[in-house]
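Researcher: Checking consistency across runs. Here is PRD domain-containing protein again:
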Amino acid sequence: MNKSLQVKKVLNNNVVVAINSSGEERIVIGKGIGFGKKQGEEIFPKQVDKLFVLRDENEQEQYKTLLNSIDEKIVELINDVIVHIRTRFKNELNEHIHVALTDHITFAIKRLEQSMDIKNPFLTETQTLYPKEYTVAEEAIEIINKSLGIHLPEGEIGFVALHIHSAITNKSVTDIKKHSELINTLMQMIQDSFELSLDTKSINYLRLVRHLRHAIERVSMGDIMEEQEKLANVLKEEYPLCYNLAWKLIKVMQNTLQKPVPHAEAVYLTMHLQRLSRYDNDDK
């Protein structure tokens, strides 16, 4: 923001509706930004260091609706958390995080008050796929717990990590959750096929989970991979169980993503599966 905004309406001490020089409405969010402000007063650029401006009209309306049912203390706390996230990643966040994270944390607190515990079925995969986001999410949950004197469950760290990843990559939380759930399903299929309880901390497990993530992203974006027919024939002959399992996984990916998966993915999956099965069997 390089020009001042004019206050139109103070929603609370931390949120105001403002008008820019073009007459467009904005939601300005920041600690104490609305305190003592009156209609027509200016908000200057130097005040916006730790502030956020919602520009999208739909986001503005959703945020206004949320404010009607949320304690101002919670709003201020979540904004502090978002400032912390932005600082840790040293870049701008998609403005949707204000709506999404405010809504999610508010609902999580209500669930806690009502003794409702919602399990996070892909917590391990989230920690593996997005390690920095997970670390920052841990910090965010710790800030919330200390400030409110509560104890949000560990599963919330994973959910917040997905919101953070969404905000820094501009991907929808729905797609990110869908992909995490798919990876969880694929890893369970692998464990069942190998009749093993995989070591989630092993390097081969981490490599496979990350490979699946990149494979899903490639398929989602329609990336074309070079065919590996000769290598595929060798792997099919040498490691038939891993090769067949790779194709089972690919069929699940195709059904879930509703997109074709290049045959070359079977080659890379087979190599990862062989490495994983050999490592874990050696450790038994």
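Researcher: Does this match what you'd expect to see?
Model: One thing to look at in this run: The CA atoms of residues 89 and 168 lie 8 Å apart.
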